[in-house]
Design brief:
This protein has a five-stranded mixed beta sheet with strand order 4-3-5-7-6. It has a two-stranded antiparallel ribbon with strand order 1-2. Helix content is 61%, strand content 4%. A hairpin with a 2-residue loop joins strand 1 and strand 2 (374-378). The relative contact order is 0.11. Helix 12 (288-304) packs antiparallel against helix 13 and helix 13 crosses helix 27. It is mainly alpha-helical and 795 residues long. It contains 35 helices and seven strands.
Length: 795
């Protein structure tokens, strides 16, 4: 029988504890990675035998560099060029620079004694500034100023002038520096392999950032983006104001990030300004992933050194879900960036408070001489004004998360409120109620300049602050019980069968497997390093454990090292809260848990540092490089989206595909743009809600809205049908039969039982309509011309 003490067991075999840990982690990581790689890369990707292509098969693509070049250039079938992206990137840089100027003063005034690294300070300032620019654009839109560039120019100029004045008045020291890492001078690669591998980590991280920039500057294709993320801004711009939308239910929800697209459209202006402005806004939205990378890298560099910071930032960028969301124009990664920013500021605030109380790493309040040799305590406790500003900054980030989409209210605002209340109640009794009062003011200010205007807008326009949610409580304009039920059914927690419970242990295991193994949104080394980070925190938190692991460290160093970890359980608790909300209340799609990855990557950075310092630097480096290489291969492939990076924007804009590839836009959209754009034409669409790319006026509705076509045509005599179409200047009707079939399929969102193909055959026979666009497949899409209306409009 082996002796009881583990260290004695290991040493009796001639093994050191580090070697044993390295072998155990290597074996576990290898098994997990092999399991992970055995699953398909993505539904729809097939191998030569028609079977789902596994991830390991997909990774073999790296052996075929000519395949990558062919994909980047569309196989030579389309014009190549990349210079047309430069005006878009210039506009994005300018908008971010304005955001930095606007937000910098708030960050510095809120935490003047902060220990943020420079990259953290820049990212936090930009995020704060962008939230204020978003609200400014909303207010201008509500005041009916979206059609012109002058209101937004005046508003932005006023914000910039105010920011310069505040920075000048505050006169706060802004020297932000890299603090002493928690592992001596930080972890630095050593030896020939270590130095080369360290440079390779930096190179791959920069390559991933370049992939993001190329992908973000591509024209949009993703359904939600062309249906409402960009389409909402386009409609606000073209109609000149922000108001209630009766045909696209999504446009009535918070659209904090979409305001950047609207601002760009207003500034670019012109008949085609919506297109270029939309691309600028899309890159601005996606660029939040790079800001989050800066936050993650800077925060981890504070504890583990520069190399750990690069590793953590690279792991974040290598997550395929982040790349897909950011490059396609979705908003979930940006929500994660604001969630992370708020948590980091709260952590820094908590750190300052614990130092002031003498509870952070054994430190004590600072002493200052006040005269006659008498020393008095001075702490990092902020005064009332600073407390209000700090709390306001926290809720600028949390509030902007709630202004992006409703889950941000639960993911970010609720945990922030709870944390702030605990901070205030943990103060000394004389300070407790004063702190609560100051923080209450800060909360109101923070949400007042971010999410509150959106919820107030909904109250005024719909009577429901969270429209279209909570219809049974608040009601809502144009929202009856039937539509509300259709919405809730479409977003309900899924079940595998009618008799199965969505909350059973089996469902929980399957969800965990989906998130951590099967999901195409995940990369394999993130869970490994996150687990290592938790192990490192647990082992360091045990009294005396650090000294046993490294007896050369002094007790003061050990105390300081342990003292830097109290934030870990709080971050973990927030992660578990988000996951609980995702699993208990949402329809469990991957994008709804993706925001929590920003917190995970910081924990993974902690795991990189612990593995490199306590186990094996080589093992940590190899795992990091594998994760970054996996991200480079997958993120730049068609598995994540359109990767024709070297094709001109004009060619991509009108790409309808060919026999070898699917187009960016449908053939019906291309036909309408070629034949109807510029003419006195207006298109009524049924079943088709991807309206952004149409270059002519369109009338459409989502599956959750009442179709205008059904109101105008169903059960109405032919003469009345013609009259209604003429009154609304409709010259053509597009029916997407494939979309109607999808909506009406079992378990899908649902759609009215009208129309059918027989209905439109009757319209043709009555002389109301005639078929055009014969080259389109009538089983997929049909386009009809309203007989006589176009000629009448021309006269």
């Amino acid at each position: 029988m082996l002796p009881n003490r583990a260290n004695t067991d290991i040493r009796s075999l001639g093994w050191s504890p580090k070697l044993f840990l390295a072998l155990a982690i290597s074996a576990a990581a290898s098994l997990y990675i092999l399991w992970f790689l055995s699953f398909p890369i993505l539904d729809g990707f097939r191998d030569a035998n028609g079977e789902p292509m596994s991830r390991v098969q997909f990774l073999s693509r790296v052996l075929l560099p000519e395949l990558w070049l062919s994909e980047f250039t569309a196989g030579g079938r389309m014009p190549t060029g990349i210079g047309d992206r430069l005006p878009i990137l210039a506009g994005v840089v300018l908008w971010y620079a304005i955001g930095y100027v606007v937000g910098r003063g708030l960050v510095v005034r809120a935490l003047p004694n902060s220990r943020f690294t420079k990259i953290e300070q820049v990212a936090l300032a930009i995020l704060a500034g962008m939230s204020l620019l978003s609200t400014l654009t909303l207010l201008i839109g509500l005041a009916r100023g979206s059609a012109s560039r002058w209101p937004i120019l005046a508003g932005v100029t006023s914000l910039v002038v105010a920011a310069f004045w505040m920075n000048r008045k505050s006169r706060v020291a802004t020297e932000l520096h890299l603090t002493t890492p928690w592992l001596g001078e930080g972890i630095a690669p050593s030896g020939v392999f270590g130095q080369l591998a360290g440079r390779l980590v930096v190179a791959l991280t920069l390559a991933l950032a370049g992939i993001y920039l190329l992908g973000m500057s591509m024209p949009p294709y993703e359904f939600d983006v062309v249906e409402y993320h960009l389409q909402s801004a386009k409609e606000f711009y073209q109609q000149g104001y922000i108001g209630f939308n009766d045909h696209n239910i999504y446009v009535n929800m918070p659209l904090g990030l979409e305001m950047h697209s609207l601002a760009a459209m207003s500034l670019v202006n012109g008949d085609d300004g919506w297109w270029l402005g939309g691309l600028i806004g899309k890159v601005v939205i996606g660029g939040h992933a790079l800001l989050a990378a800066g936050l993650i890298g800077g925060y981890c560099a504070r504890y583990g050194g520069t190399w750990v910071g690069w590793c953590a930032a690279g792991i974040w960028l290598a997550v395929p879900g982040n790349a897909h969301v950011s490059c396609s124009g979705l908003v979930d990664t940006a929500l994660g960036a604001y969630l992370l920013a708020g948590v980091i500021v709260l952590t820094e605030w908590w750190r300052a408070k614990r130092i002031a109380d003498g509870n952070w790493g054994g430190t004590r309040p600072k002493q200052t001489t006040v005269g006659n040799g008498v020393e008095a305590e001075s702490s990092d406790r902020p005064n009332g004004a600073a407390l209000v500003t700090t709390c306001a900054l926290v809720f600028v980030y949390a509030g902007e998360a709630a202004a992006i989409k409703y889950p941000g209210l639960v993911y970010a605002v609720f945990p922030a409120v709870l944390w702030v209340v605990v901070l205030c109640l943990s103060s000394d009794r004389p300070r407790k109620w004063r702190s609560l009062a100051c923080c209450s003011v800060g909360v109101i200010l923070g949400v007042g300049v971010t999410c509150l205007p959106w919820y107030a807008k909904n109250v005024v326009l719909t009577g429901n602050p969270v429209y279209p949610l909570a219809q049974s409580v608040f009601g809502g304009r144009n929202l009856d019980a039937k539509r509300a039920k259709q919405w809730s059914e479409a977003h309900r927690v899924p079940v595998s069968s009618p008799s199965a419970s969505p909350y059973s242990p089996t469902a929980a295991i399957e969800s965990a497997k989906q998130v951590f193994v099967k999901s195409e949104f995940l990369q394999p080394v993130l869970p490994i390093f996150m687990l290592c980070g938790l192990i490192g925190w647990w082992s360091a938190s045990r009294p005396g454990s650090v000294r046993r692991a490294d007896s050369t460290r002094s007790s003061a160093e050990t105390s300081k090292w342990i003292g830097n970890f109290p934030w870990v359980p709080i971050w973990l608790a927030i992660s578990l809260w988000i996951f609980a909300v995702w699993w208990l209340t949402t329809h469990r799609i991957d994008r709804f848990w993706l925001p929590v990855v920003s917190l995970w990557c910081v924990l993974a950075g902690l795991g990189v540092a612990w593995t490199a310092q306590r186990v094996s630097h080589t093992l940590a480096t190899v795992l990091v490089l594998f994760g970054l290489a996996y991200g480079c291969i997958v993120n730049s492939s068609p598995a994540l989206g359109d990767n024709r990076y070297l094709v001109t924007l004009d060619a991509l804009r009108q790409d309808v595909g060919d026999e070898e590839s699917v187009g960016r836009i449908s053939r019906a959209t291309g036909w309408c743009n070629r034949n109807l754009a510029g003419a006195p034409a207006k298109l009524l669409m049924i079943g088709e809600a991807r309206a952004f790319d149409f270059r002519l006026p369109v009338v459409y509705s989502t599956c959750f809205d009442t179709s205008p076509a059904e109101t105008w045509l169903r059960g109405v005599p032919t003469a009345g049908q013609r009259q209604r179409l003429e009154e609304n200047h409709v010259t053509h009707i597009l029916v997407n039969w494939s979309e109607l079939a999808r909506y009406r399929s079992e378990g899908n969102y649902g759609f009215s039982d009208w129309p059918t193909q027989n209905d439109f055959q009757a319209f043709v026979e009555s002389g109301l309509l005639m078929r055009v666009a014969d080259e389109l497949d009538p089983a997929i899409t049909e386009i009809f011309e309203v007989v006589g209306v176009r000629q009448a409009d021309e006269k």
